[in-house]
Design a protein that fits this description.
Layout (H helix, E strand, L loop, with lengths): L6 E2 L10 H11 L12 H19 L8 E4 L2 H15 L6 E5 L4 H12 L3 E5 L9 H7 L4 E5 L13 H11 L2 E5 L18 E5 L10 E5 L28 H39 L3 E3 L25 E6 L4 H7 L3 E2 L15 H5 L4 H5 L1 E5 L6 H21 L5
Parallel strand pairs: 1-11, 3-4, 3-5, 5-6, 6-7
Antiparallel strand pairs: 2-8, 7-8, 9-10, 10-12
Helix pairs in contact: 1-7, 2-7, 3-4, 5-6, 7-11
The structure holds pyridoxal-5'-phosphate.
Pyridoxal-5'-phosphate binds next to α3.
């Protein structure tokens, strides 16, 4: 079988829209174009019914109630609304927020904004695998803490946080718990009830839905979470997010969640097998390679977890450093394989990734890192092509830069 080039292996940055998702969206881009807020005619009613169905699908994907889902433009907005909105609404209770140093910039920069408003923020350091545990959260919470925000899974090294344990600590201490669930939603188990999550940001384009649409889960009871809106206007989404709803995008998001839930386990097995093949192939052909982030779990021949093995890393994630090679040069050399160095948004700045720094990867190895993001459409043939391309490029670069060895 010939491999179609270029190969896309950067599914943490974004994913292609699934054909079934596009099909579900099409009528709402053409015939059924109504505004979901139009109450006086059938065009509006039809759009509203479609949004209601998507709200149900998204809620079901995280075991929430549809009333607790607020549609947004994506997770950057969701993170901002959750963090700024909750901290400001509970300001009279306290002015302290707890987060982690490996969070996405949408969370870190929202926390920096709170600092400018007089809040204090604790940035917890992870262990060498990128994990922050519940004991560290417990220790960081004080009398004036109003919010803990920690991600479900990391976008660079795939580390999965023990959200159930962290949520239990927050609940016990009476502190709100927000999670940026973007990378894990639809890929690993996520349950706002079991994990005692009060606020959760998700986005469609990481799970084969369209770009520019996301949702914020806002707990409705026990406790009922209050938020100060950041957009003001028509009072859509229970007044928490004014702005005309992106009906086709929302319909696509709902369908994407439904498909991900139905296929999650099969897909995880497929991705674990491809990742194992990729790592083994690279290790067999290239020397001085290190894995950044958690070790890969032991798996069975069909890709399921071996007995006793724990999933501590997103199934499609692999982050490697190639000693003596510049990551940017490696990216350039890998013309036919789309991967990224560090995270897509920071790689332009050529700063070593804040995540790799936080887990203690030295600067030279952080600069020599590549993030592989395997996804639904990837095949074993594409992985084999990638192994060959990586091996050839690393070899060539090492010959060109012997001084770095
Ligand atoms: N949070 C995480 C962990 C992400 O990986 C991303 C995407 O890069 C975002 C937030 C931002 O999401 P969006 O692109 O929907 O604004």
């Amino acid at each position: 079988m010939t491999v179609k080039l270029p190969i896309y292996m950067d599914h943490h940055a974004t994913t292609p829209v699934d054909a079934r998702v596009l099909e579900a969206m099409m009528p709402y881009l053409t015939r059924a174009f109504g505004n979901a807020a139009s109450r006086s005619h059938v065009f509006g009613w039809e759009a509203e019914a479609a949004v209601d169905e998507a709200r149900r699908q998204v809620a079901e994907g995280m075991h929430a109630s549809p009333k607790e889902i607020i549609f947004t433009s994506g997770a950057t907005e969701g993170d901002n609304l959750a963090i700024l909105g909750a901290a400001r609404a509970y300001r009279s209770k306290g002015n302290h927020v707890v987060t982690g140093s490996t969070e996405h910039h949408a969370v870190l920069d929202s926390c920096h904004e709170l600092e400018r408003e007089g809040f204090e923020v604790t940035y917890l350091a992870p262990d060498r695998t990128g994990r922050i545990d519940a004991a560290a959260v417990r220790e960081a919470i004080g009398d004036r803490t109003v919010l803990v925000t920690l991600m479900l899974a990391n976008n660079e090294i795939g580390t999965i946080h023990p959200l159930g344990e962290i949520g239990a600590v927050c609940r016990e201490k009476g502190v709100l718990f927000h999670t940026d669930a973007v990378q894990g939603f639809g890929k690993i188990p996520f349950d706002v009830e079991q994990m005692s999550v009060d606020l959760a940001s998700v986005t469609a384009h990481k799970l084969y839905g369209p770009k520019g649409v996301g949702a914020l889960y806002v707990r409705g009871r026990k406790p009922r979470v209050r938020l100060e809106p950041i957009f003001h206007g028509g009072g859509h989404e229970r007044g928490l997010r004014s702005g005309t709803l992106n009906v086709p995008g929302i319909v696509g998001f709902g369908k994407a969640v439904e498909i991900s839930m139905a296929e999650r386990e099969d897909e995880a097995r497929h991705l674990r097998l491809l990742r194992r093949r990729l790592l083994d192939g690279i290790l067999a052909e290239v020397s001085d390679v290190s894995v950044n982030g958690p070790p890969l779990p032991r798996i069975e021949a069909d890709g399921s977890l071996a007995p006793g093995a724990e999933e501590r890393r997103l199934p499609g994630n692999l982050n490697l450093s190639f000693a003596g090679v510049e990551g940017e040069a490696l990216l350039m050399g890998l013309k036919n394989v789309a991967v990224s160095s560090g995270s897509a948004c920071t790689s332009a700045s050529l700063q070593p990734s804040h995540v790799l720094k936080a887990i203690g990867v030295p600067d030279d190895l952080a600069h020599a890192s590549i993030r592989f993001g395997l996804g639904r459409p990837n095949t074993a043939e594409e992985v084999d092509f990638t192994i060959g391309a990586v091996a050839a490029t690393v070899k060539r670069l090492r010959e060109l830069m012997p001084a770095m060895r």
